[in-house]
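Bench notes, bay 3.
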Amino acid sequence: MARTREFDTQATLRSALDLFWKKGYHAASVDDLVQSTGVNRASLYAAFGDKHSLYESSLKLYVEDAAREVRAELEQHASGFKAIEALLLRVVRESVGDVERRGCFAANSTLELCPSDEKILTLCNLGRTTMERELERVVQSGQAAGEITTRRSARELSRFLGSVIMALRSASRMQLSRAHLQSVADVALDALSTDR
């Protein structure tokens, strides 16, 4: 009879994500992972595979969490423009509040491991396209209501916004001020406005 796992795989994965997010893939050793998760090496390997597989699972979890958070924020607002404004303000607030200066885990992964690591690149692109689809839906709604410019297509604007959000999330690593990040968000909102 197979032995029952004696640890919470989801909690373990979140601990691994936290460690990888702080240290990066190369700097996080298996011993670090054992200490961070409280799970011995053999059990980690049995549950998740090797270090790279555990990193992939951590990145997948991050991508899923980020997509769920973006969707939840956007769905709170009836106005497309207000939904995007609220999302940008949240990203600014979270970036400034990131005292550990971790930045965006997907962007960090891209810089550290891509383009040579195709699995990581695929996951990062999945995160990007998922966020852009959510944004595109809201931009389309805002365009139909006359709140968001039609000078550019909803797809183009969603790609632009996705890039702005990734940059804002990554900016915490540079310790930029709230005023600096807010000015970036304000320019993005100006670009969406129908008043120009």
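Next record in the batch:
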Amino acid sequence: MPELRVCFLSHMFPNALAPLISPFMVERAKALSALVDLEIVAPVSWFPFFRTEMPSQVEWFRGLKVRHPRYLALPSALWSLRWFPYLAMLKHLFGGAVLERNILHIEWIYPDAYAAVRFAEKRGIKTVGVVHGNEAIDYYGPLGYRKQYIETFSLLDKIIVVSADLKNKLIKEYLVDPAKITIILNGVDVEKFPIRNKNDARKNLGLSLKAVIGVCVARLSEEKNLDVLIHAVAKLDDESFLIYIVGNGLLKNKLQALIDQCGVAERIKLVGPVPHDEVALWLNASDFFCLP
């Protein structure tokens, strides 16, 4: 069997300037690097004339060497064209030479995989795409951009999904050949997420030892339905429990305003982002986990 030389490709990858973005990507890349010869490419979008701080083009992040090539950012109105600058970036990155990888492992379907399959098909490189959840393919509505996803799935050599539900969805709604799809459930690093004493975890975080505590770990974005959680708590007469929402996102101010409006500021707290290693501490401190 020939040596597997894999390029791990994802625009959603943490870096020194944004270390808390998609921490699971680092875990996946680390696990894969133990099995194959792995190169990590994490493109960063940019737009000229905007002086946005950018990560180094090459950096070492948590023991992994990561390349951060730039590609032109386009507004949401030009969403269907975002793959053009992404493809141009891939061609420029590898300079027209034959890519010294025999597999492109692509962690996001659009624009990453949509562009990558076009780059790879002319070079005889196999492609594997990963679907992590419904928001990865449904974010812009059930019908709005389905053509791009169907086309990408038809060109990928293999597709990894994280649940049987997603597999069925791809088959029924995106016309994917079932033979292409492999289910690989999300895993957990039990050394990073050990079982600890609840009271010790609470003392470490400065939380009440007596309260009933629920923890929600989520990005503060639409698809997480955190407004549902807030409204649900507001409808309950029982005030003996507390909810801590761990995470960050664009809806932070909107959710805080809703918490205040519903009169549950003493019962629901937005913790904000925490380091990946600290998430386990919050989980161990809780009596229950909730995610609507």
